[in-house]
Specification:
single chain; 2 domains; 8-stranded mixed beta sheet; alpha+beta; 18 strands; globular; Chloramphenicol Acetyltransferase; about 625 residues
C-alpha cells in the first residue's frame, strides 16, 4: 500500500508500458519503459546498521540498546555482515529485483494465517442509495462494465504510466491483479495468473446465496457485453440461486492456510469440484452479490461495512459468499453497501485504488442503454459435490470464521474537522502530520512509543514492491513528550513537531529511493539462511524481536473516491490503521483484536481524533503568535 504523500506526486502520462503478463511475445519498443527502470539497490551495510540502532533508541531500554550495539559491531567487524552483504550484491546483479520474490514469499505466500482479516485489505466505498435487488443488479452491471474497460487498457497496453518526482514507476502490479488467484499448498501457497498466454479467460465469477456462477462477459464475436446485457445475466443468476440452504463452499477459503490446504486437496479429489474450483481461479475477477447486513445505527454503519468487506460478517451472513483466494472480489450488497476485498500477494494498494477511481468515474458516465437483445446462454452454475469429509471441513471453517468475526474490533473514523489542506497551509507534510498524530495518540494511551510500520512504495525500481518508513523516531518521541509536558511552551512544541515531520519526510525520501533499512535487514537474514550454518546473533536479539513487533501497522492510501481502506492488525496486541486524507476531511479505519484487553479500536480512534485537533490548535496558535 502507498502513502498519499507519495501518491500525490504521481502523474500519469499516456506512455504504453510493456505488458508484463506476456513476456515471450513482447515487442522491444513497447518494453522501453519497463526495461529502462533501474534495479533496486542494496544499501550500504554500515549505513543500515547505523540507522537500525537509531531506530531502536525510542523503543528499547538502554541496556537492550547497549547489548545490540555490541552485536552490531561484531556483525560489522567479524566478517559475517560483509559476507552476507556481498552475497546480496551478487544476487542483485543476477536478478531483476533481489527483493521482490523473497518479499512475496516471506510476507504472503509463506504466511499460514488466514488471508481474511490478517493479510487481505478491504476498501469501503460510499453507500449507494439502492435498497432492492434491481438497484443491486444495476449497480453491479455498471461496476462490471467499468472493470472491463480498465481491463481493455491493460490488454491494449494503453494504461497510463505513473510518475513520481519526474521518474516513471514500475507498472507490473497492474498486470497481476486480473485473472489471478492464490492457490493453497500444504506449507507454501502459490499465485497463478491465467492472463498469461494467448487464450485469456473471458468470464467472471458471480456468487449469490453461497452459489457460484460463471458469467461470460463477451459476445460470441468477442465484443464485450453491454451494461444492459450484464444486467439481464445477473437477473438470471439471481433467479437461479434463490435457494439459501446450499453449503457455503467459499467459506473454506477463510481458513488457516495449512487447514485450507488439506481441505482443498479433499475438495478437488472430486472431478466436478476440481472443474468448479478451476473456473473460479481462472475468472477475471469475482462479484459477490451479498444479502443485506444486520441493521445498525448510522453511527456504526461505516465500521460494520468495513468489517463486512474484511470477513463477510460470519457464517450466518456473507462469509460464505466469498472466495478469499481470488485477487479481486467486488462486494455489492442488496442494502446499498459496497466495497472490495483483495488478496495481497500479487499487488499493493495503489493499483487497486487506481482501478477503483477509474471504475467509479466510469460508472458516473455509464447509463443502461437498451441494446438489441441477442439471446445469451444462461450463466453456468458451478456444481460442488459435498462429501461427508468436505461437509466437516465446511463446519469447521464456519466455527473458525465466527470466532474471527467476534475477535475483530473495527472502528471507522470520519474525521470532518480538516483534511490535508490544513497541514499543507502550515508547510507540513500531510502524511507526516497524521503519523505524528498516531504517535501522540499511542503515547497518550500507553505512556510509551512502539514499533511502527508505514508502507512506502519501491516502484521507482523494476518490480519494486514496498519498504517501511519507521515513523517512531527520537524526534517523534521528543514531540509527543513535549505535548504532554505542561511546562513546555507552544513555540517549542511546534518546533519539535516541525523537526519530527522533517525527519519523517527525509526517511520517506530515503525509503522511496531504496535506502530504508527493513527490506535490507530482511535480505541479510534470508541470505544468512541460504549461506550460513548458524543465524547471526543480531537476528536472535531481543531488540530485533521488539523492532519486528509492529503495535502500529499503518498505511496512507489516497483515493479520489471518498472511500477508506482497512486491514487487520499485524500483531495480537496491535492496531491496524489505514487513512485516506481528502482536501477537507479524512477517513480512517482502525482495527484491533477483542481478545487483547489492552487494545480498543474506538478508544484509539478517539485518541487519534483528539491528537489531530490538538495539533491543529497548536499550528493555529503558533501561527497567530508570529503574525
Amino acid at each position: 500500500m502507498l502513502s498519499t504523500f507519495v501518491r500525490a506526486a504521481l502523474r500519469p502520462a499516456m506512455v504504453k508500458p510493456c505488458s508484463l503478463v506476456k513476456p515471450l511475445v513482447l515487442v522491444p519498443e513497447r518494453c522501453l519503459h519497463q526495461e529502462a527502470l533501474p534495479k533496486l539497490p542494496v544499501p550500504p551495510l554500515k549505513q543500515t546498521c547505523q540507522r537500525y540502532l537509531a531506530m531502536l533508541e525510542p523503543i528499547v531500554s538502554q541496556d537492550e540498546l547497549e547489548h545490540t550495539r555490541q552485536l552490531v559491531q561484531e556483525f560489522l567487524s567479524g566478517g559475517v555482515g560483509e559476507r552476507l552483504q556481498k552475497s546480496l550484491e551478487r544476487r542483485a546483479r543476477k536478478t531483476d529485483n533481489w527483493l521482490s520474490e523473497w518479499w512475496r514469499q516471506s510476507a504472503y505466500l509463506d504466511c499460514r494465517m488466514p488471508v481474511a482479516v490478517y493479510t487481505s485489505p478491504g476498501v469501503v466505498l460510499p453507500r449507494m442509495h439502492f435498497q432492492d435487488r434491481q438497484g443491486q443488479m444495476r449497480f453491479a452491471a455498471k461496476l462490471i462494465t467499468g472493470v472491463l474497460e480498465f481491463k481493455r487498457m491493460i490488454d491494449s497496453d494503453t494504461l497510463p504510466v505513473e510518475y513520481l518526482s519526474g521518474k516513471p514507476l514500475c507498472m507490473d502490479q497492474y498486470y497481476q491483479i486480473l485473472n489471478s488467484c492464490r492457490v493453497p499448498g500444504p506449507k507454501r501457497d502459490t499465485v497463478v495468473n491465467h492472463a498469461i498466454g494467448k487464450s485469456s479467460p473471458t468470464h467472471i465469477t458471480v456468487v449469490h446465496n453461497f452459489q457460484f456462477f460463471i458469467l461470460d462477459v463477451c459476445n460470441s464475436d468477442g465484443s464485450p457485453l453491454t451494461v444492459d446485457q450484464i444486467y439481464m445475466q445477473l437477473e438470471k443468476i439471481w433467479n437461479s440461486s434463490l435457494q439459501t440452504n446450499k453449503e457455503p463452499v467459499g467459506i473454506l477459503t477463510s481458513q488457516h492456510r495449512n487447514t485450507w490446504g488439506k481441505a482443498y486437496n479433499n475438495l478437488i479429489k472430486d472431478r466436478t469440484n476440481k472443474e468448479s474450483v478451476r473456473a473460479i481461479q481462472k475468472s477475471i475477477f469475482t462479484v459477490c452479490l451479498d444479502a443485506p447486513m444486520p441493521r445498525v445505527s448510522d453511527e456504526l454503519y461505516k465500521s460494520r461495512v468495513a468489517a463486512q468487506v474484511l470477513h463477510g460478517g460470519g457464517a450466518r451472513w456473507n462469509s460464505g459468499n466469498r472466495w478469499f483466494d481470488k485477487t479481486l472480489q467486488f462486494i455489492v450488497g442488496e442494502d446499498g453497501t459496497c466495497g472490495l476485498v483483495y488478496e495481497h500477494a500479487p499487488a499493493e494498494g495503489p493499483p487497486i485504488v487506481f482501478l477503483i477511481d477509474y471504475v467509479v468515474e466510469c460508472m458516473r458516465r455509464t447509463e443502461i442503454v437498451r441494446s438489441p437483445m441477442v439471446p445469451l446462454a444462461t450463466p453456468q452454475k458451478l456444481r460442488f459435490n459435498i462429501t461427508p469429509e468436505v461437509k466437516r471441513d465446511i463446519e469447521k471453517a464456519k466455527q473458525n470464521m465466527n470466532m474471527m468475526v467476534h475477535d475483530l474490533d473495527v472502528n471507522v473514523l470520519l474525521f470532518s474537522h480538516f483534511g490535508r489542506n490544513l497541514p499543507k497551509s502550515h508547510k507540513l507534510s500531510p502524511d507526516a502530520f497524521v503519523q505524528m498524530a498516531l504517535q501522540l495518540a499511542y503515547f497518550r494511551m500507553y505512556d510509551m512509543c512502539c514499533s511502527t510500520y508505514e508502507s512506502v512504495t519501491l516502484r521507482m525500481f523494476k518490480y519494486g514492491r514496498t519498504d517501511n518508513i519507521r515513523s517512531t523516531t527520537l524526534d517523534s518521541l521528543n514531540f509527543v513528550q513535549a505535548m504532554e509536558d505542561p511546562a513546555k511552551q507552544n513555540t517549542e512544541r511546534m518546533a519539535l513537531l516541525r523537526k519530527a515531520v522533517e525527519t519523517h519526510r527525509k526517511m520517506t525520501h530515503d525509503a522511496i529511493h531504496g535506502q530504508a533499512i527493513d527490506r535490507h535487514i530482511l535480505g541479510l537474514r534470508l541470505q544468512a539462511i541460504e549461506d550460513l550454518t548458524s543465524m547471526p546473533q543480531i537476528f536472535m536479539d531481543t531488540s530485533y524481536a521488539v523492532a519486528q513487533h509492529y503495535n502500529l501497522s499503518t498505511s496512507q492510501v489516497g483515493s479520489k473516491t471518498d472511500c477508506v481502506m482497512c486491514f487487520g492488525p499485524m500483531v495480537p496486541d496491535g492496531y491496524g490503521v489505514c487513512y485516506n486524507p481528502m482536501d477537507e476531511h479524512m477517513n480512517l479505519a482502525i482495527t484491533a483484536f477483542n481478545s487483547c484487553e489492552e487494545t480498543h479500536a474506538a478508544k484509539f480512534a478517539k485518541a487519534v481524533e483528539d491528537a489531530l485537533l490538538d495539533m491543529q490548535a497548536l499550528c493555529e496558535d503558533t501561527a497567530k503568535a508570529t503574525q
